[in-house]
Amino acid sequence: MRYKPSDQERAAKEKISDLSNEEYREEFRRDYARLIHSPSFRRLQGKTQLYPGRESDFFRNRLTHSLEVAQIAKSIAIRLNSEISNNENQISLDICEVAGLAHDIGHPPFGHQGEEALDECMRDFGGFEGNAQTLRILTRLEKKALFDVSEGYSYDNRAGLNLTFRSLASVLKYDRVIPEKNDNRTSEWINHPMKGYYNSESDIVSQIKEKVISSDVEGFKTIECSIMDLADDIAYSTYDIEDAFKAGFLNPLKILYTSDEILEQIIEKIDPDEDKGIEVNDIKEVLYRVFGSVFDVEKSIEDFKSPEEYAYYYSNTAYNTSIESASNGYLRNIITSGRIGYLIRGAYIDNDDYTPLAKVSIDEERRLEIDVLKYLVYCTQVENPKLSIAKHRGQDIVKEIFGFLYSKGGYDSLPDDFRAMYDEIQSNDLQRARVICDFIAGMTDRYCSEFYYRLKSENPKSIFVPL
């Protein structure tokens, strides 16, 4: 994809001697290694994807989800490369993998509920949003590289993993700055996490644009980021359905008999402005196209003594088939693996554009299937009453911890490295709030709960258990 030397540069200078014996590794592959060995990546194993990890070892967490997204993103790139004859236009598989592995690294504990809670706490301190936190972790928080203080950096000279500019560009999904004050957000994002990046990372975003396309354009999004975005939707719309099957919340028969009320909610999320003209029957058609084949039966009505006997056989077979397809691992695998391959085959590069900002899309039929299943999961699972208690509990825990740490003297309970950073900031409330936010956002679900119990439980863990 016409990768330039500037794509492979890093924001912080590194000693050439450190890399002199590694000519066999390209810079983007080095980025991949830095990422998978980072603590932030490992912590994803303790962060919720759809269902809390304590419920079952089967359900996906943010780490396994990210691995699946990386695999799908790489497969999309391989397929697209097979249709690109000019080697100069080949897409980097390493960057696509990096993007897939890193895309959720900024997610806080308790999934989107934790994200909403932290954003509420940070409304007048620059907000909180998972994608923005991802960029901040990669460029500031991870303990891999430092900027030279002689270059003008003051107390905070952290350079994160110091990935190449092109790899950083692959996770920059939303090209907008999140305002520091909630009142300055547009109406769409008032009292809701705003997609974008923090003002504290504005300088690195400008450098990314300059190194990748040599200009500062609006709507910046690289082809690798576009591939990752599609891969994320494919994984979400397929594997979260499988988890819902395993949990017993959904099965093919339930899906085909989804209430019109839920179908209307799905339409509202896919087509909020009603400009696409999607109707309930369109959603039903998608669901039948995806799951209807599960209920194929070999016998016809002529094989039975009466229509009633046939109806009984068919309904009973359909029910058993539906339950079995949800509980039988082999049948679930047939459904999910078949869909992944089918969706990957629908990806294409818009207008044969081979520039860094080329867009990867998928045909309309497959796009609608992805959106329907993605929002079906959201409307039936994320908003399921069975999960609402866990949802509100997670939000309350996050807000309670933030309130305590931000209160007078609360920062004394921060780990040494975060407290040292807090002390160096002195009187800047916005930056101090961000330090607390960074600490909480990096927690796993379990660590966050344990920290909360230290504050509130009558029988907290021993003081000798480290923070």
Structural account:
- The protein is an all-alpha fold and 467 residues long.
- It has two domains: 358 residues, Orthogonal Bundle (Hypothetical protein af1432); 92 residues, no CATH class.
- It contains 20 helices and two strands.
- The protein has a two-stranded antiparallel sheet with strand order 1-2.
- Helix 17 crosses helix 19, helix 17 crosses helix 20 and helix 18 runs antiparallel to helix 19.
- The radius of gyration is 24 Å and the shape is globular.
- The model has no long low-confidence stretch (mean pLDDT 88).
Order of helices and strands: HHHHHHHHHHHHHHHEEHHHHH
Strand order within the widest beta sheet: 1-2
Count of DSSP-assigned helices = 20
- Looking at CATH, the homologous superfamily of the largest domain is Hypothetical protein af1432
Q: What is the count of β-strands?
A: 2
Give the rounded overall mean pLDDT: 88
How big a fraction of the residues is strand?
under 5%
Predict the CATH topology of the largest domain: Hypothetical protein af1432
Poorly predicted parts: none
| Relative helix content | 40-55%
Please tell me the total number of domains.
2
Class by alpha and beta content? mainly alpha
Distance between the ends: 45 Å
CATH class of the largest domain: Mainly Alpha
- Morphology call: globular
Cα radius of gyration in angstroms = 24 Å
The biggest beta sheet is recorded as: 2 strands, antiparallel
Return the CATH architecture of the largest domain.
Orthogonal Bundle
